[in-house]
Amino acid sequence: MTAILDILEQDSHATPDRIAALTGLPEDVVRQQIDEWEKSGVICRYKTVIDWERAGFEPVHAFIDVSVAPERGSGFDEVAARISRFPEVRSVFLISGGHDLRVIVRGADMKQVANFVSERLATLERVTGTQTHFLLKRYKEDGDVFFEVEADHRLMVTP
Amino acid sequence: MKPLNKVVVETPPSGIRRFFDVASRMQNVVSLGVGEPDFATPWRIRESAIYALERGYTTYTSNAGLLTLRKAIVQNIEDRYGVSYDPETECIVTVGVSEGLDIAVRALLNPGDEVIYHEPSYVSYDPTIRFAGGAAIAVQTTAADGFRVSAAALEAAVTPRTKALFLSSPCNPTGAVQQRGDLEAIVEVAVRNDLYLIVDEVYDRLTYQGVHTCMASIPGARSRTILLNGFSKAYAMTGWRLGYVCAPSEVTEQMLKIHQYTMLCAPHVAQYAAIEALQNGEADVRGMVTDYDRRRRFFVRGLEAMGLRCHAPDGAFYAFPSIASTGMTAEAFAEELLQEERVAVVPGTAFGAGGEGHVRCSYATSLAQLDEALRRIRSFLGRRNLLPGESDGRPAEVQP
Ligand SMILES: Cc1ncc(COP(=O)(O)O)c(C=O)c1O
User: Fold this and answer.
1) ipTM reported for the complex, 2 dp
2) CB neighbours (10 Å) of residue B26?
């Protein structure tokens, strides 16, 4: 059954019919299973991987490491949730190491991101420090490679 | 000038060659004609080869190959099939299964000795046996039997000159995987007639349905088996030219002499890569096997849906559908499909006369390409009114 998830993760367009052909499972079983997962939240939503740069846009991304004074009772959760609510924040992780949270922010330009950090993030109660790293070039993200992959070098017909 | 070697001169060029020449001159071809993985060698393996180059491992190795590699090879066979070999005396690292086969038959055969093999099968068996001075005796397998080799058919071909039985499983081009029971009966034939068993198990890891049985693991077989395998298919390493042979030391001792004088050793860097493959490549193999299996189901179902009957190909990465329903010969089908739709398949006859009525389609290509190939084959058949009617156009119930 995880084969279904595996295939959908690669290609959210894969139809139950196609998944059935690929796995050998009956189509109605596939359909029913996907339904169940959509309801139970195993499948959160379907999305598309876009190379925005190739599409002519150049959004700015920054990785911001945030130091937080944890709260009694809720630890980092409260602050993390507050940060997560900003729409420009793409990801928020609690991490080990020198800082506590790693936040990924997307903005139209550097100024927008910088403003967000200095005015919104750094000023949050319990945030004790930030360190911002601007993304310079994206090579691979979530398993997708963003540079030219090698062509098929095989001969046309071989034994 | 004096005539060249008679056996070689009389050997026709491979039937695959012609299709290669035609297809290579065309644009926009979807090729199902490629007998090798579409994956590049897993990066961790390539990366260790780069490291080996940086460290300057650019010399000859010992004739039999790096001992670390031979140890890893026999360990792998032991873990997988429960057969043990001595890495010092019973294992030789070769330049692919191709060289392994060559030195095996050269070590075994005296002029005129016969080797019985099965067809349709990989194009090199017959010539390699004949180049070694032997006679290659083909036994036909059929779609009706799922292209399985029967012990009785092999035994019927045994003569006083027979030296060895040759078996290939999983089989290129049929995808057939020999069943344990059949292999046991074949071992009995070998014992009864005192024959060697030469086995090409290069596709062993690419078995999707049932399990691969290593010939040497069958009781009574090990002492007469020459086991050929390699890295080309399982690890997507065709271009590295690396394989191995495991056999009793009386045989490897003779094979090693040929290897030593004609090849010296297998490529050093490739041997380093192979160590990494065996030690850390398992997850990569599994990933590729999962992928092939999905494409296999998808593609076979697609062929069946347009009325091209396909016995279930349990291993390797080929579908070998029957095109008998079209009334065309395999050659004509492949030729016209290439000209009209730019889809390259290989006529079954390239793998022996018994391949007539079939074409080999490699599904070691991307799903998008398989989709496109199916679309084009459908249009090819449609133009000839060869698609099943709406009433019986349901997807076939046969599952791979
Ligand atoms: C059945 C079979 N045996 C052997 C080979 C050659 O293997 P290698 O690359 O190890 O020489 C091939 C290659 O296509 C094959 O299909």
Assistant:
1) 0.80
2) 13
